[in-house]
Amino acid sequence: MNRLHMVMPANLVTSITRQCQTHQLGLAISQGLRCNLMFAATFQSNTVLQDYPIQDPKENHICVDIDKVLDAPETIDTVYQQDISINICSDRCSSLLQECTKAGSLEDGKVIHGRLIKCGIMGKDIFLENKVLNMYAKCNCFQDARQMFDKMLERNIVSWTALISGYVQHGNAREAFELFHRLQWTGISANQYTFGSILSAAAAIDDAYGKCHMVDGCAVRVGRMIHGCTVRTGFESDVIVGNALVAMYMKSNKMDDAYQVFDKMPERDVVSWNSLIAGYARSGYVEDAIKFVHEMQRAGVRPDHFTFVNVLGVCQNIHDLQHGKQVHGYSIIGFMSDIVVNNALITMYIKCGCLEDGRKVFDKLPDKSVVSWTAMISGYVQQCLNEEAIESFWEMLQARVKPNHFTLSSVLRACGSLAALEHGRQVHSYAIRDVAEFTAFVRNTLITMYSECGSIGNARKIFEKMRERELVTWNAMIGGYAQHGYGKEALKLFETMRRENMQPDPVTFVGVLSACSHEGLVDEGRCFFEMMSRTYGIFPGVGHYACMVDILGRAGHFNEAENLIKNMPFEPDAAVWGALMGACRIHGNLELGKHAAEWLYVLEPENTAAHVLLSQMYATAGKWDDAARVRKSMRNRGLQKRRPGCSWIEVGNEIHSFIMEDR
Description:
Elements: E1 5-9, H1 13-22, E2 41-42, E3 48-49, E4 54-55, E5 61-65, H2 73-81, E6 86-87, H3 90-103, H4 106-118, H5 126-138, H6 142-151, H7 157-169, H8 173-184, H9 192-203, H10 205-209, H11 218-233, H12 239-251, H13 255-264, H14 270-282, H15 286-298, H16 305-317, H17 321-335, H18 339-351, H19 355-364, H20 370-382, H21 386-398, H22 405-418, H23 421-433, H24 440-452, H25 456-465, H26 471-483, H27 487-499, H28 506-519, H29 522-536, H30 542-554, H31 558-566, H32 574-587, H33 590-603, H34 609-620, H35 624-636, E7 647-651, E8 654-658
Antiparallel strand pairs: 1-5, 1-6, 2-3, 4-5, 7-8
Helix pairs in contact: 3-4, 3-5, 5-6, 5-7, 6-7, 7-8, 7-9, 9-11, 9-12, 11-12, 12-13, 12-14, 13-14, 14-15, 14-16, 15-16, 15-17, 16-17, 16-18, 17-18, 18-19, 18-20, 19-20, 20-21, 20-22, 21-22, 22-23, 22-24, 23-24, 24-25, 24-26, 25-26, 26-27, 26-28, 27-28, 28-29, 28-30, 29-30, 30-31, 30-32, ...
């Protein structure tokens, strides 16, 4: 077996062992120079060195076989500091560089590269040079990769392909094409891997260069040119090239071209079928995608989890429960215990509104991952089953599954919806301990949670402690102030935001206009409403118009509110008419309130709020017959007043809900 040998004088074993232990490498060396040396060490990258046999070519020397140098750069450095002779094997260094590439261990790869330079290997072994080049490219270190590529005395197609594929994998389509163009003038023929990489770049060329003003677009035109090159060079029938062509045409929405390539392929693997199935599914042809799953199985190609996840992802996005269930039926055979497929099934059922079916899949999972738990918790939150979401979160912790920032955000949303402040504090405490998951995403949700629980002071503390504030952060704090009637504080924060050159978005102005409404700031509301389009180029949406109608209506400016509604660039929705009707109730404007109620009857015929408000307005005006008529109309239409408002209270760390009639 080829090995990288380090010939180490025996008197250095003790000192090196001590240094390794200092770095917490846990090095264990058995006694005696002629016995086997075991590195049972777990290094910082969590890779274990195992079973390194000792050879004894010379008396008082130990020869250590190192198979996993990448996880022990300290050991390498220690040995070199002692001027120990090294016999480097090309195969062993190649495997070490490959490990660095897979693990993304750039620093460890640089250590090996440095040793190769010191030993005079670079410039003499193109095989190793290509390995180093590939490592730099795959680790997204293109400055070093390009520098090394340009200095290579000899380059083969592997050298060119390594750099091209590196550019493609990291989204640098422009650089990949420039390099591919240079390759054409070298006389070196591209191989199937080169074509596969550059076709992937062609699929992303519109993103790199921007959309071309052409019928087919740049991606298709360039892709077809490369397709012609593969035909001329005889690589069109290669499965790798064929798969890349199918994927390229599918991404460009050229389904007929993709199918023609697929149909002519002499050999198809699971990637070929997955590319076709995913393309049809993304284009909305779910039935065809499922048909291809069936044909794939008839052709003797076993689907993998990507096959089902692709189709299920589309089913959940378009809420196609029927086809989702069909895919579930196909996946039962051979994938019942596949965690990835089951997680996709859970998400699909929840997004399609079938929470119970999603829970059934969840309960049958023998090993539930963080994705499984997060899907269920977020599903509960989406269905407003916030108590169940919080309960599931604590069950998740009891099952010793570590939540991620998506989990934490979902359960914090549940706490905010229930105003469950104590539960929210406990989740906050957990999030602080897990530094990796205590992201800005979680902090923003914490601000919203504390605001919804009425703890504005705690929300502001989190806001102040954030070193970098995103737009979402500002919106959450402004919205929290506005929600609880702290309009002046919300407007002060908005001005601070502007001074820090943070560009507001439509959500920001919803919070600002709401703050003006609560404070009765009519002139300021008009100013901010005009500022949206004049200063920031944001055209008001229906939510902004609803806020403005509320501002004017609460101040009694009904004529201006009516004119604003009439001049809206789109049809007013129920929120706009509801805001107007609420203002009419405050000021006793019965005629305009009746007009708003008539629109609400049309827009939301099943909503009883308009009937109840109108009945109350009649009663306030002393028109009891009209109030009774509205109530009778509700009964005749089968409309019932919604369940009375529900409140929650935390007692003994448990959430209790009650309504007005409860005793």
